[in-house]
Protein backbone atom coordinates (compact mmCIF):
# COMPACT_ATOMS: atom_id res chain seq x y z
CA UNK A 1 0.00 0.00 0.00
CA UNK A 2 1.32 3.44 -0.93
CA UNK A 3 1.68 6.02 1.86
CA UNK A 4 -0.83 8.87 1.91
CA UNK A 5 -0.28 12.02 -0.11
CA UNK A 6 1.05 15.10 1.63
CA UNK A 7 -1.43 17.89 2.21
CA UNK A 8 -0.82 21.53 2.92
CA UNK A 9 -1.99 22.54 6.36
CA UNK A 10 -2.32 26.11 7.64
CA UNK A 11 -0.25 25.08 10.66
CA UNK A 12 2.69 24.01 8.49
CA UNK A 13 5.23 26.07 6.58
CA UNK A 14 5.76 24.57 3.12
CA UNK A 15 9.09 24.94 1.32
CA UNK A 16 9.13 24.76 -2.44
CA UNK A 17 12.66 25.36 -3.80
CA UNK A 18 15.93 23.46 -3.83
CA UNK A 19 17.51 26.43 -2.03
CA UNK A 20 15.79 25.14 1.09
CA UNK A 21 17.84 21.93 0.91
CA UNK A 22 20.99 21.99 2.99
CA UNK A 23 24.15 21.89 0.88
CA UNK A 24 26.54 19.55 2.64
CA UNK A 25 30.28 20.08 2.07
CA UNK A 26 31.94 17.35 0.05
CA UNK A 27 33.37 14.68 2.31
CA UNK A 28 36.25 12.33 1.74
CA UNK A 29 35.91 8.88 3.25
CA UNK A 30 39.58 9.08 4.22
CA UNK A 31 39.59 12.10 6.50
CA UNK A 32 42.27 10.57 8.71
CA UNK A 33 45.70 9.33 7.77
CA UNK A 34 46.36 5.68 8.36
CA UNK A 35 44.77 2.36 7.59
CA UNK A 36 41.58 1.14 9.27
CA UNK A 37 42.33 -1.80 11.50
CA UNK A 38 41.27 -2.93 14.96
CA UNK A 39 44.99 -3.22 15.71
CA UNK A 40 45.64 0.33 14.57
CA UNK A 41 43.79 2.12 17.38
CA UNK A 42 45.74 5.27 16.53
CA UNK A 43 43.52 5.61 13.47
CA UNK A 44 40.36 5.64 15.55
CA UNK A 45 41.59 7.86 18.38
CA UNK A 46 43.99 10.15 16.52
CA UNK A 47 46.36 12.41 18.38
CA UNK A 48 43.89 13.83 20.91
CA UNK A 49 44.43 13.17 24.59
CA UNK A 50 42.14 10.53 26.01
CA UNK A 51 39.66 11.42 28.76
CA UNK A 52 40.46 8.69 31.25
CA UNK A 53 37.68 9.64 33.66
CA UNK A 54 35.07 9.28 30.88
CA UNK A 55 36.64 5.98 29.82
CA UNK A 56 36.51 4.62 33.36
CA UNK A 57 32.95 5.89 33.96
CA UNK A 58 31.38 4.62 30.73
CA UNK A 59 33.10 1.24 30.80
CA UNK A 60 32.20 0.76 34.48
CA UNK A 61 28.54 1.65 33.96
CA UNK A 62 28.23 -0.52 30.86
CA UNK A 63 29.98 -3.38 32.65
CA UNK A 64 27.59 -3.09 35.58
CA UNK A 65 24.56 -3.06 33.28
CA UNK A 66 25.82 -6.18 31.52
CA UNK A 67 26.12 -7.81 34.96
CA UNK A 68 22.53 -6.79 35.78
CA UNK A 69 21.20 -8.15 32.49
CA UNK A 70 23.20 -11.38 32.34
CA UNK A 71 23.65 -12.35 36.00
CA UNK A 72 20.99 -10.63 38.12
CA UNK A 73 18.45 -11.05 35.32
CA UNK A 74 15.46 -10.03 37.45
CA UNK A 75 12.13 -9.48 35.69
CA UNK A 76 9.78 -6.99 37.40
CA UNK A 77 6.76 -6.14 35.27
CA UNK A 78 5.77 -2.97 37.10
CA UNK A 79 9.28 -1.55 36.69
CA UNK A 80 9.30 -2.37 33.00
CA UNK A 81 6.00 -0.56 32.48
CA UNK A 82 7.19 2.45 34.51
CA UNK A 83 10.43 2.75 32.56
CA UNK A 84 8.68 2.28 29.23
CA UNK A 85 6.64 5.41 29.86
CA UNK A 86 9.58 7.27 31.41
CA UNK A 87 11.62 6.45 28.30
CA UNK A 88 8.83 7.98 26.19
CA UNK A 89 9.24 11.14 28.26
CA UNK A 90 13.04 11.08 27.86
CA UNK A 91 13.00 10.15 24.19
CA UNK A 92 10.61 12.92 23.23
CA UNK A 93 12.67 15.39 25.25
CA UNK A 94 15.81 14.75 23.25
CA UNK A 95 14.30 14.13 19.80
CA UNK A 96 11.47 16.65 19.84
CA UNK A 97 13.11 19.12 22.21
CA UNK A 98 16.90 19.37 21.96
CA UNK A 99 16.99 18.12 18.38
CA UNK A 100 14.01 19.21 16.30
CA UNK A 101 13.00 22.27 18.32
CA UNK A 102 16.12 23.84 19.79
CA UNK A 103 18.71 22.75 17.21
CA UNK A 104 16.73 23.05 13.97
CA UNK A 105 13.83 25.35 14.89
CA UNK A 106 11.57 23.01 12.92
CA UNK A 107 8.47 24.28 14.72
CA UNK A 108 7.36 26.75 17.36
CA UNK A 109 6.26 25.67 20.82
CA UNK A 110 4.37 27.26 23.67
CA UNK A 111 5.83 27.41 27.17
CA UNK A 112 4.14 24.24 28.55
CA UNK A 113 5.52 22.13 25.70
CA UNK A 114 8.98 23.68 26.01
CA UNK A 115 9.01 22.84 29.71
CA UNK A 116 8.00 19.24 29.00
CA UNK A 117 10.73 18.91 26.36
CA UNK A 118 13.35 20.52 28.59
CA UNK A 119 12.59 18.21 31.52
CA UNK A 120 12.39 15.19 29.25
CA UNK A 121 15.77 16.02 27.74
CA UNK A 122 17.25 16.52 31.21
CA UNK A 123 16.04 13.04 32.20
CA UNK A 124 18.29 11.51 29.52
CA UNK A 125 21.35 12.38 31.61
CA UNK A 126 23.32 13.98 28.80
CA UNK A 127 24.92 17.42 28.46
CA UNK A 128 23.03 20.65 28.94
CA UNK A 129 20.81 21.91 26.14
CA UNK A 130 23.35 24.61 25.24
CA UNK A 131 26.24 22.17 24.75
CA UNK A 132 24.08 19.54 23.02
CA UNK A 133 22.60 22.02 20.53
CA UNK A 134 25.93 23.71 19.83
CA UNK A 135 27.63 20.40 19.03
CA UNK A 136 24.71 19.25 16.90
CA UNK A 137 24.66 22.43 14.84
CA UNK A 138 28.38 21.98 14.19
CA UNK A 139 27.69 18.35 13.28
CA UNK A 140 25.21 19.36 10.60
CA UNK A 141 27.34 22.15 9.16
CA UNK A 142 30.48 19.99 8.91
CA UNK A 143 28.98 16.52 8.82
CA UNK A 144 31.54 13.68 8.81
CA UNK A 145 34.60 15.88 8.55
CA UNK A 146 37.19 16.60 11.24
CA UNK A 147 35.02 19.52 12.39
CA UNK A 148 32.19 17.07 13.17
CA UNK A 149 32.24 16.12 16.89
CA UNK A 150 31.31 12.51 16.02
CA UNK A 151 32.80 12.15 12.55
CA UNK A 152 31.48 8.87 11.10
CA UNK A 153 34.36 8.77 8.64
CA UNK A 154 36.52 7.69 11.59
CA UNK A 155 34.55 4.49 12.05
CA UNK A 156 31.65 3.09 14.02
CA UNK A 157 33.24 3.11 17.47
CA UNK A 158 34.44 6.71 17.28
CA UNK A 159 31.10 8.04 16.01
CA UNK A 160 29.15 5.94 18.52
CA UNK A 161 30.92 6.76 21.78
CA UNK A 162 34.66 7.09 21.13
CA UNK A 163 34.33 10.83 20.58
CA UNK A 164 33.28 11.17 24.21
CA UNK A 165 36.43 9.40 25.41
CA UNK A 166 38.91 11.96 24.10
CA UNK A 167 39.39 15.67 23.80
CA UNK A 168 37.74 17.32 20.83
CA UNK A 169 39.52 17.74 17.52
CA UNK A 170 40.81 21.35 17.18
CA UNK A 171 38.49 21.89 14.19
CA UNK A 172 35.46 21.01 16.34
CA UNK A 173 36.50 23.54 18.99
CA UNK A 174 37.19 26.23 16.40
CA UNK A 175 33.87 25.82 14.62
CA UNK A 176 31.94 25.44 17.87
CA UNK A 177 33.04 28.94 18.89
CA UNK A 178 31.48 30.33 15.71
CA UNK A 179 28.02 28.85 16.17
CA UNK A 180 25.31 31.43 16.88
CA UNK A 181 23.48 30.25 19.99
CA UNK A 182 21.64 33.50 20.73
CA UNK A 183 18.22 32.05 19.97
CA UNK A 184 18.76 29.22 22.44
CA UNK A 185 20.20 31.33 25.25
CA UNK A 186 17.38 33.87 24.98
CA UNK A 187 14.76 31.19 25.75
CA UNK A 188 13.70 31.53 29.43
CA UNK A 189 13.18 27.76 29.67
CA UNK A 190 16.79 27.17 28.58
CA UNK A 191 17.99 29.86 30.97
CA UNK A 192 16.31 28.04 33.86
CA UNK A 193 17.72 24.73 32.64
CA UNK A 194 21.28 26.08 32.43
CA UNK A 195 21.08 27.80 35.81
CA UNK A 196 19.85 24.71 37.66
CA UNK A 197 21.28 22.05 35.36
CA UNK A 198 23.02 19.92 38.01
CA UNK A 199 20.08 19.58 40.44
CA UNK A 200 17.64 19.10 37.55
CA UNK A 201 19.95 16.44 36.07
CA UNK A 202 20.12 14.57 39.38
CA UNK A 203 16.38 14.81 40.05
CA UNK A 204 14.99 13.86 36.62
CA UNK A 205 17.68 11.49 35.41
CA UNK A 206 18.26 9.53 38.62
CA UNK A 207 16.20 10.41 41.70
CA UNK A 208 12.70 10.33 40.17
CA UNK A 209 13.16 7.07 38.17
CA UNK A 210 14.65 5.37 41.24
CA UNK A 211 12.55 6.74 44.11
CA UNK A 212 9.16 6.83 42.36
CA UNK A 213 8.79 3.05 41.76
CA UNK A 214 10.40 2.33 45.15
CA UNK A 215 7.86 4.50 46.98
CA UNK A 216 4.70 3.98 44.91
CA UNK A 217 5.21 0.46 43.52
CA UNK A 218 6.85 -1.02 46.64
CA UNK A 219 9.83 -2.33 44.67
CA UNK A 220 13.19 -3.02 46.29
CA UNK A 221 15.47 0.06 46.07
CA UNK A 222 18.37 -1.90 44.55
CA UNK A 223 16.08 -3.23 41.80
CA UNK A 224 14.92 0.33 41.09
CA UNK A 225 18.56 1.42 40.81
CA UNK A 226 19.40 -1.47 38.48
CA UNK A 227 16.48 -0.77 36.16
CA UNK A 228 17.37 2.93 36.10
CA UNK A 229 20.93 2.14 35.03
CA UNK A 230 19.65 -0.15 32.27
CA UNK A 231 17.30 2.63 31.10
CA UNK A 232 20.12 5.18 31.03
CA UNK A 233 22.48 2.91 29.09
CA UNK A 234 19.72 2.05 26.62
CA UNK A 235 18.80 5.72 26.10
CA UNK A 236 22.32 6.99 25.48
CA UNK A 237 23.20 4.08 23.18
CA UNK A 238 20.14 4.69 21.05
CA UNK A 239 21.11 8.37 20.89
CA UNK A 240 24.67 7.45 19.90
CA UNK A 241 23.42 5.03 17.25
CA UNK A 242 21.94 7.96 15.34
CA UNK A 243 25.49 9.31 15.01
CA UNK A 244 27.02 5.94 14.18
CA UNK A 245 24.72 3.29 12.68
CA UNK A 246 22.48 5.82 10.92
CA UNK A 247 25.55 7.37 9.32
CA UNK A 248 26.99 4.08 8.10
CA UNK A 249 24.29 1.56 7.23
CA UNK A 250 21.18 1.99 5.11
CA UNK A 251 20.04 3.33 1.76
CA UNK A 252 20.32 6.95 0.62
CA UNK A 253 17.23 7.81 -1.44
CA UNK A 254 17.57 11.59 -1.02
CA UNK A 255 21.31 12.26 -1.29
CA UNK A 256 23.69 9.47 -2.24
CA UNK A 257 26.77 11.68 -1.74
CA UNK A 258 26.59 11.87 2.07
CA UNK A 259 27.15 9.40 4.90
CA UNK A 260 23.73 9.65 6.67
CA UNK A 261 21.41 6.81 5.66
CA UNK A 262 17.86 5.53 6.20
CA UNK A 263 18.13 3.03 9.06
CA UNK A 264 14.88 1.36 10.13
CA UNK A 265 16.19 -0.17 13.35
CA UNK A 266 17.50 3.18 14.58
CA UNK A 267 14.19 4.76 13.59
CA UNK A 268 12.26 2.15 15.56
CA UNK A 269 14.36 2.54 18.71
CA UNK A 270 15.15 6.23 18.31
CA UNK A 271 11.66 7.72 17.99
CA UNK A 272 12.03 8.34 14.24
CA UNK A 273 15.58 9.71 14.23
CA UNK A 274 16.93 6.97 11.97
CA UNK A 275 15.55 8.40 8.73
CA UNK A 276 18.84 10.19 8.60
CA UNK A 277 19.49 10.62 4.90
CA UNK A 278 16.23 12.55 4.69
CA UNK A 279 17.01 14.52 7.84
CA UNK A 280 20.41 15.69 6.61
CA UNK A 281 18.79 16.71 3.33
CA UNK A 282 15.88 18.55 4.98
CA UNK A 283 17.09 19.23 8.57
CA UNK A 284 14.41 21.85 9.18
CA UNK A 285 11.51 19.40 8.67
CA UNK A 286 9.75 18.83 11.99
CA UNK A 287 9.20 15.16 11.11
CA UNK A 288 12.93 14.46 10.55
CA UNK A 289 11.53 12.02 7.99
CA UNK A 290 9.32 12.08 4.93
CA UNK A 291 6.45 10.49 6.87
CA UNK A 292 5.35 11.64 10.31
CA UNK A 293 3.87 8.30 11.39
CA UNK A 294 5.99 5.43 10.01
CA UNK A 295 8.50 4.43 12.74
CA UNK A 296 8.43 8.05 13.91
CA UNK A 297 7.17 8.29 17.48
CA UNK A 298 8.24 11.90 17.87
CA UNK A 299 6.41 12.85 14.69
CA UNK A 300 3.23 11.37 16.15
CA UNK A 301 3.72 13.23 19.44
CA UNK A 302 4.32 16.52 17.62
CA UNK A 303 1.17 16.04 15.55
CA UNK A 304 -0.71 15.55 18.82
CA UNK A 305 0.71 18.73 20.33
CA UNK A 306 -0.12 20.57 17.13
CA UNK A 307 -3.72 19.39 17.51
CA UNK A 308 -3.92 20.78 21.05
CA UNK A 309 -2.26 24.04 20.01
CA UNK A 310 1.03 23.72 21.87
CA UNK A 311 3.09 23.20 18.70
CA UNK A 312 2.54 25.40 15.65
CA UNK A 313 4.22 26.65 12.44
CA UNK A 314 5.60 23.18 11.81
CA UNK A 315 8.00 23.30 8.86
CA UNK A 316 7.94 20.68 6.11
CA UNK A 317 8.97 20.59 2.44
CA UNK A 318 6.47 20.28 -0.36
CA UNK A 319 5.96 16.95 -2.07
CA UNK A 320 7.20 18.49 -5.32
CA UNK A 321 10.50 19.59 -3.75
CA UNK A 322 11.11 16.14 -2.26
CA UNK A 323 10.48 14.50 -5.62
CA UNK A 324 12.89 16.84 -7.40
CA UNK A 325 15.64 16.14 -4.88
CA UNK A 326 15.03 12.38 -4.96
CA UNK A 327 15.30 12.26 -8.74
CA UNK A 328 18.31 14.58 -8.80
CA UNK A 329 20.59 13.29 -6.01
CA UNK A 330 19.06 10.07 -4.62
CA UNK A 331 20.49 6.57 -5.02
CA UNK A 332 17.35 5.22 -6.71
CA UNK A 333 15.95 3.42 -3.66
CA UNK A 334 13.07 5.79 -2.84
CA UNK A 335 9.80 3.94 -2.18
CA UNK A 336 7.86 6.08 -4.66
CA UNK A 337 10.24 7.78 -7.11
CA UNK A 338 13.33 5.58 -6.98
CA UNK A 339 14.85 3.76 -9.94
CA UNK A 340 14.34 0.42 -8.20
CA UNK A 341 10.60 1.12 -7.99
CA UNK A 342 10.48 2.01 -11.69
CA UNK A 343 12.31 -1.19 -12.65
CA UNK A 344 9.87 -3.30 -10.60
CA UNK A 345 6.91 -1.60 -12.31
CA UNK A 346 8.46 -2.28 -15.74
CA UNK A 347 8.91 -5.95 -14.83
CA UNK A 348 5.24 -6.21 -13.76
CA UNK A 349 4.11 -4.62 -17.05
CA UNK A 350 6.26 -7.05 -19.09
CA UNK A 351 4.88 -10.02 -17.16
CA UNK A 352 1.31 -8.88 -17.83
CA UNK A 353 2.05 -8.46 -21.55
CA UNK A 354 3.45 -12.02 -21.70
UniProtKB/TrEMBL annotation:
Membrane-crossing segments per the record: 52-72, 79-99, 111-133, 196-217
Q: Which InterPro entries match?
A: Acyl-CoA_DS, FA_desaturase_dom
Q: What is the predominant subcellular site recorded for this chain?
A: membrane
About its domains, the entry says: The histidine box domains are involved in binding the catalytic metal ions.
GO cellular component annotations, sorted alphabetically?
endoplasmic reticulum membrane
- Recall the GO molecular function terms of this protein's record: iron ion binding; stearoyl-CoA 9-desaturase activity
Task: Please give, as recorded in its UniProt entry, the membrane topology of this protein.
Answer: Multi-pass membrane protein
Mind telling me what this protein is named? Answer: Fatty acid desaturase domain-containing protein
Q: Which domain of life is it from?
A: Eukaryota
One of the GO biological process terms: unsaturated fatty acid biosynthetic process
Identify the residues that the record assigns to the Fatty acid desaturase domain, covering every copy: 82-283
Q: Which cofactor does it need?
A: Fe(2+)
UniProt-annotated location(s) = Membrane
State the family it belongs to. Belongs to the fatty acid desaturase type 1 family.
Question: Keywords for this entry?
Answer: Fatty acid biosynthesis, Fatty acid metabolism, Iron, Lipid biosynthesis, Lipid metabolism, Membrane, Oxidoreductase, Transmembrane, Transmembrane helix
In its UniProt entry, the species of origin is given as: Henosepilachna vigintioctopunctata
Amino acid sequence: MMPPEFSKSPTMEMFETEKDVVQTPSVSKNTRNGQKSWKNLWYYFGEQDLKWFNIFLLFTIHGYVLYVLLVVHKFIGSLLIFHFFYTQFSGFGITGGAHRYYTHKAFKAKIPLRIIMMLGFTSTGQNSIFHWVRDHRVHHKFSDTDADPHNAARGFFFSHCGWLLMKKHPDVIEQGKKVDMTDVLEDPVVQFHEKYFVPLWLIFCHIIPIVTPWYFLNVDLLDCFNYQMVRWVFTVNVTWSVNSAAHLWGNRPYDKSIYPAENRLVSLLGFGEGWHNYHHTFPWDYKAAELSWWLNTTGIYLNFFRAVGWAYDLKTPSKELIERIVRKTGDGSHFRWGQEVLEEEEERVLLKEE
